[in-house]
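Contributing new complexes? Match this layout with manganese (II) ion.
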Amino acid sequence: MIIVMKHRASAADIDAVVKQVETSGYKAHLSQGTERTIIGVVGDDRPVQSHNLEMLSGVEQVVRILQPFKLASRDFHPEDTVISVRGVPVGGPRLTIIAGPCSVESRSQLLETALAVKEAGADMLRGGAYKPRTSPYAFQGMGEEGLELLAEAREATGLPIVTEVMAPETVSVIGKYADIYQIGARNMQNFPLLTAVGKTRIPVFLKRSMMGTVQELLMAAEYILAGGNRQVMVCERGIRTFETATRNTLDINAIPLLKKWTHLPVFADPSHATGKWDLIAPTAKACIAAGADGLIIEVHPHPAEAMSDGAQSLKPERFAQLVRELRVLAPAVGRMM
Ligand code: PEP
Ligand code: MN
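Output block (do not edit by hand):
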C-alpha cells in the first residue's frame, strides 16, 4: 500500500502518518519526490486499515499496490533511482556501459582489456573471479587473486569494478574489492545470498535467471531492498526458449516492462543473451532503443583463447566501434553517453 501525501503536506503531517503506520506494526518507507511525498507501507500481508490513514491530515490518497513487489515498484518510488558508483551516475539520462572479460584470467589479460575498454569509452569494468560454471571441470575463476587484479585494474584506469558473488560466505571478501556485486542468473533466487548482499551498502547488479519471470526478478530485487540496501540494478540477459540457434533468447519486452514496473536502473546483457559476438552490436542497439539504462558487454583481447565465453566476447576494436555507434544512437532516444 502507498500513502500519497498532499502537495503541501507539512513535515508534522508526514511524521504523524509514519507513526500511525509503525504503531500498526508496519514499516514506512519515505520517497520524497520533487512534487510530493509518498509513504510506502510494507509488512506482512494482513490488510491495513486504510480508512484510518485516509483521515489523517495531509493525506491525499491511500492506494493498494497489486504487485507483490513493493520497494522495487514504481508506485512506491515514481522517479528513476540514480545510483552513484564512485561518481558514475547509474540510472539517470546518461547511459552506463560496463565492459570487460567474462573471467579474470591473468594480470596481462585483465589490464590489457581494462585499458582498451576505458579508451573506448566504457564507464565500468566487469570481470568474474568466482565463476558459476555449468561443468565442475571447467575453469572456476581465480578467486581472491582475481579480485586483487581487478583492484589493480581499477587503480590503473579509474573504472569502478563489477564482479560476481555466488555464495553468502564470499560476500565479505568480495566486498573488500568490488564497487558493485554482480548476482548471476543462476543465483537470482539464491535467497540467502540476496539477504546477505541486502545487509551491505554495496550496489548490486542483479541478473534475471534464464527461467525467471520479470515479476520473479523484481521479487528477488525486493529481497535486497527489504534488507536495507537500496542500490539495486536489474539486468535482462536472455531467457531459455525453444530456440537453440542462439545461447538464449533476448527478451526485449522485458526492458520496457521493467522500466514501467520499477524505478531501479535497467540493464541488458547482449553477450549472454545471444552467445555470439556478431549478434552483440545489433541487439545492444535494440536494447538501448527499448529503454535500457545501460549495457554489460564481454570483451576479450584474444577471444579464441578465452577461458570462458570466448564465442560471445568482442575484440576491443569491435567494442570501440559499438560505442561509437551507440553515441550516435543515444541522442535519438533521448539519452546521453
Ligand atoms: C557472466 O556475467 O559472466 C555470467 C555468468 O552471466 P549470467 O549469470 O547472466 O549467466
Ligand atoms: Mn560470461
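Reviewers usually confirm one structural detail per submission. For this one: Residues 102, 272, 298, 308-309 surround manganese (II) ion (ligand 2) (CB under 6 Å).
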